[in-house]
Design goal:
Length: 150
């Protein structure tokens, strides 16, 4: 796999093209691939940090990091997505490792909370996240809340 170039930006630091590419990738995976009709633009992007991973300039993976108090009491990592064209190459693992590192750099040693699609529970457990809720339906997909303690 080619090297991934990572960048972390606040919403207002993103170029129009970067935001378009982020929304396009999220739509490609969350709406089309997962056949889930939902409103992705939830007014949280403007308050988030966006961690992008690019391979040869192409958006390979992205997450948004939400500050404490927005989604949960703790900071949160969400909208975790890797491009289908780069799957199976460890991009998702590198994405989560970087997202955790950046979250801790932004907010200090703290717990991080996520709302995970249930089928990805084992993936998130590999990063130290532990299920902390019953399963629940969000947009007709089974989810669990998970917490990673410092």
């Amino acid at each position: 796999m080619e090297a991934i170039t990572w960048s972390l930006k606040k919403f207002d630091e993103l170029t129009t093209l970067e935001m378009y590419e982020i929304l396009k990738l999220r739509s490609e995976v969350f709406v089309v691939e997962q056949n889930c009709v939902f409103l992705d633009m939830d007014d949280r992007d403007q308050l988030a940090f966006h961690l992008q991973g690019r391979i040869n300039g192409v958006l390979a993976a992205v997450v948004r990091i939400l500050p404490p108090g927005l989604a949960y009491t703790e900071p949160s990592i969400g909208r975790v997505v890797s491009s289908p064209m780069f799957r199976g190459q460890g991009v998702g693992i590198e994405l989560m490792n970087n997202a955790i590192k950046e979250t801790l750099a932004l907010y200090g040693p703290c717990a991080i909370k996520i709302g995970a699609q249930e089928y990805l529970k084992k993936f998130y457990e590999s990063f130290g996240f532990v299920q902390c809720s019953e399963t629940y339906l969000e947009d007709d997909i089974t989810h669990v809340k998970m917490l990673r303690n410092p």
